[in-house]
Amino acid sequence: MSIADNLIAIKKETDQNNVTLVVVSKTKPNQDIMEAYDAGQRIFGENQVQELVEKHEALPKDIEWHLIGHLQTNKVKYIAPFISMIHSVDSIKLLQEINKQAIKADRVIDCLLQIYIADEETKYGLSFDEAIELLRSDEFAELKNIRIRGLMGIATNTDNEKQIKEEFYELDTFFDGIKQSYFRKEDSFDELSMGMSSDYHIAIEQNSTMVRIGSTIFGARQYPDQNLLN
Ligand SMILES: *Cc1c(COP(=O)(O)O)cnc(C)c1O
To answer: Residue 228 domain-assigned?
Structure first.
């Protein structure tokens, strides 16, 4: 199947469930992205700042770019003028820098707090306790040019569907609690970004509102060095 065919098939599923599809285009050439674009897709996700900036410059300006990978504070300035959503906020320090650069760009930047739910050493993210501490902090209360739109999580990379389901269930439950406690009056706190190619069906069952899908649409990624996987 072509990229367009794959996209249309997945888009049908996500539309039926009222879920936003973020097409993950990392490592893929602009030509592949344009094939998805021409099939109607406008939301794309990248995990590296430099690649994201290059693609933003080269590709149509009505694309909404989402940053889904770990973000270093010193790179925020490169994406602040145009980024649609940052899924990977994992510290107050990073959030303060995003706010600072958003002020410079005269805009409000939509962010998700990345929550650590996987049973793995390597994944970034806040623990449940750290997320609560961040939201309660005075530093957070001062930030006016960021808007927390919800939470993001990455499940363990495993074939154990029960485990994946439990991790997504916990994140969904945490999302509801956070909304009740800290965002009750803010309708804009409404996004739960969870699910990728291998587990998006499970994520949608567990109330995901946003899935991030790459390889099912574009085919497997090729890395020069296998250590760079993910
Ligand atoms: C690469 C990546 C994805 C997409 O992974 P696929 O398995 O290709 O669908 C989703 N989320 C994040 C954070 C990623 O880095």
So the answer is: no
pLDDT digit string, tens, across residues 82-106: 999 999 999 999 999 999 999 999 9
pTM over 0.85: yes
The reply to whether 229 falls in a domain is no
CA atoms within a 13 Å half-sphere pointing along the CA-CB vector of 202: 22
Query: What is the domain count for the chain?
Result: 1
Task: Find out whether 27 and 221 touch, Cβ atoms under 8 Å.
Answer: yes
CATH number of the domain at 86, please: 3.20.20.10
Q: What tens digit of pLDDT does each residue of 181-201 get? A: 999 999 999 999 999 999 999
CB-defined site of ligand 1, < 6 Å: 24, 26, 47, 68-69, 154, 196-198, 212-216, 230
